[in-house]
Amino acid sequence: MSEPTKRRPTGLERAQWDIEQGRLWKARDRLAGLLSSHGVPPHIPEQEVLELLGQVFYAMGDLPQAGRYWFLTERSGEDADKARSALFARYGTGSTLLAVLPFGHGLDTYPEVVRSRAEALDVDQREVERRLSKASGRPAAIPRGSRITDWLIGAFFVLLLVTLLVGFVTVLKFLFGLL
Hints:
Layout: H1 11-20, H2 24-34, H3 46-59, H4 63-70, H5 78-91, H6 95-100, H7 112-120, H8 125-136, H9 147-175
Helix pairs in contact: 1-2, 2-3, 3-4, 4-5
């Protein structure tokens, strides 16, 4: 009869142990790794990771970073209010803030209070949707430039083509002595 295999601790459990051991920097790195571009593994609740990462940054004295993660949770209280105020002081309430929020999924997967906060930002809601569609892996609508920009780009390519054509004809004339 074989011995039962020991379950390997999750990244979240290891981060919690690092916090207990006073290694906040290591817990921060583990938790940030869980939120990497691959997203939080399905067996680990993302809200717990966001909550704990906010706590780590708060304990380290980095209030804007704590606010960045707590913005996406239901966390409330004086500490969360201070952290979100520091977040707003650093990034404002517009596009810059939206760009630094670590959304991992579409807005519909977050608690209602988070959806309300995101909708209250001082940005066009299409920008919020575009940012979230990038986070969730859904294809975002390709933003179109202005007509003037489109025209200038087109004119540049036409000019480039004409220049190449004139250069090609000049080289041919030179090579075949038609000058």
